[in-house]
Every structure is written in C-alpha cells, then in structure tokens.
Amino acid sequence: MGLTSEDKKAVLDSWAKMSGPTFQDAGEKVFLLLLKTDSTKALFPKFRDIPYDQLAGHPDVRDHGGKVMQVLDDFIKGLDNGGDGAVQKVGLLHKGVGVTHDNINLMKPVLMTLLGELGCSSAAGAWENLWARFMDVHRTCY
Fold it and tell me: What sequence ranges are listed for the domain Globin (predicted)?
C-alpha cells in the first residue's frame, strides 16, 4: 500500500520525535529495545557477547543504531524522490552478510513500541504503511 499525504505527514511528525536528539541517541534507544531478547541479540555478532546491561552507551550500539537511523531518515525524507535508494543499498549489504527479511522485520515492533513511548501512537497506521513499503523495497535486493 502506498502512503497518503496524511500518512507522510504523520510519519514526518513522529520521525522528528523519534530521531532525536541525534541519530546515535535515537539508534541506541532502538537497539536497546531490539536487543532485549537473547535470540535477537544473537543475530548481531558484534553485540552477542556484550551483557545487556552494558549495551547502553556502548559505542558499537550507538554507531550501528545511528547508521540504521540514517537509512530510515534518507528513506522517509525521500519518499517522493529517491529514498528507495538508501533501502536498496542496505538491502544489498544485508543480503551479502546473510541477514534475512524476517530478521529485518524484527525492527517493526521496536519502532511501533518507540512510537507509543513517545506519544505518537496515532501515527501507527502510517508507520505500518511505511514499513510495508520499506520491506517491499528491501526485498527487491534479494
């Protein structure tokens, strides 16, 4: 499903809250939610051996989270003109290291949780549509 102008506005408004104050800060929040379960944490070799209580503030978590937030930012801000390229680039990278679509889709509930925590639950439908598009573009690289 495509995004309506209302969806785009809801995504952009909530993204402004989700992505700050820096991409590294926001990415750390996302990854701390994502890595709560051992089975998900095991998918990330560079985080696998770091105890969960030591992940907050860890430079690798902040760096990787910041990169993920940058891809999402490029995708969101380029919805009307070229944002798919950021997703295609990361899709090829994921394919090369054996990351599956199911692994990538683990990000969706984390983003939805963060939306709720930030008081942006009303944007959930728009994010459902955004994530469907993100995954459609990601799949084209496999």
Answer: 2-142
pLDDT in tens, the chain (142 residues): 579 999 999 999 999 999 999 999 999 999 999 999 999 999 999 999 999 999 999 999 999 999 999 999 999 999 988 889 999 999 999 999 999 999 999 999 999 999 999 999 999 999 999 999 999 999 999 8
Neighbouring residues of 29: CB distance < 8 A, sequence distance ≥ 6: 65, 114
d(CA 33, CA 110): 6
Question: What pTM was computed for the model?
Answer: 0.93
Domains of the chain, by residue range, sit at 5-140
**CA dist 16 to 45, 110, 141, Å?**
30, 17, 28
For the domain 5-140, what is the CATH code? 1.10.490.10
